[in-house]
Design a protein that fits this description.
8 helices, 223 residues
Length: 223
């Protein structure tokens, strides 16, 4: 992508657009990680199981992301920004293609110890679908989210824990100044859980991916 959007607003502040795009970053990042791992040397049973387990986490994050759009973002935009109707229709059509791919990937990762070729093929299809899909959202929807800076507090501790895990996942590899601004946007019930969630996520990544290169992205495109 040429000239990808910055995660922070022009004044250096974070917004809901920042949170939206860090999820895009993590989706691209993890698809690349899966592709690299599945293209590498043959893996033992333990490594294959760790990768299959991580796929289930990715599945959950991707499904939750497009469900939140279908049930919240898109209906709101259809009402408040009627000029985006054709864009939203195209994005919604893409979403209807995602779930069958996720189901195929579930089956492929369940047999990963026998053949990495099948999950690798589905990962490739997801990359082909999500690349232009995410870029379209960033070009057409993100500008309208730059001014939104109210993150609703989670209704209970369990939801706060779930959100904290999501932010730990979505911000790994993001530049520290972006993370600081984004964290400041969040309610204290959530912000207080982030250090432990990020430590848990780092440990999980070490088990699944091994040593990772240091990244400090300022756009939704992994470095």
């Amino acid at each position: 992508m040429s000239n990808p959007p910055q995660l922070l607003n022009d004044d250096g502040s974070a917004s809901i657009a920042t949170a939206f795009m860090t999820s895009h970053f993590a989706l691209r990042r993890d698809l690349a990680r899966f592709a690299a791992a599945l293209s590498g040397p043959a893996m033992n049973a333990s490594t294959a199981q760790a990768l299959a387990d991580e796929w289930q986490t990715f599945h959950t994050h991707l499904h939750s992301h497009h469900q939140a759009e279908d049930n919240g973002v898109f209906p709101t935009f259809r009402t408040e920004h009627t000029q985006l109707e054709a864009v939203i229709a195209r994005l919604s059509a893409d979403h209807r293609l995602i779930d069958p791919l996720l189901e195929r990937a579930d089956r492929a990762f369940a047999e990963l110890d026998r053949s990495p070729a099948h999950p690798l093929a589905v990962i490739g299809e997801l990359q082909v679908l999500l690349g232009p899909h995410l870029a379209l959202e960033e070009a057409e929807l993100i500008p309208f989210l730059r001014g939104v800076k109210d993150f609703p507090p989670p209704p209970d501790d369990a939801t706060a824990d779930l959100y904290a895990e999501g932010f730990a996942w979505s911000t790994q590899g993001i530049a520290s100044e972006v993370i600081e601004q984004l964290d400041a946007l969040l309610p204290e019930i959530l912000r207080g859980r982030l250090p432990a969630a990020r430590a848990d996520f780092r440990a999980r990544c070490d088990r699944v991916w091994g040593t990772l290169p240091v990244s400090a992205a300022r756009t939704p495109i992994p470095e």
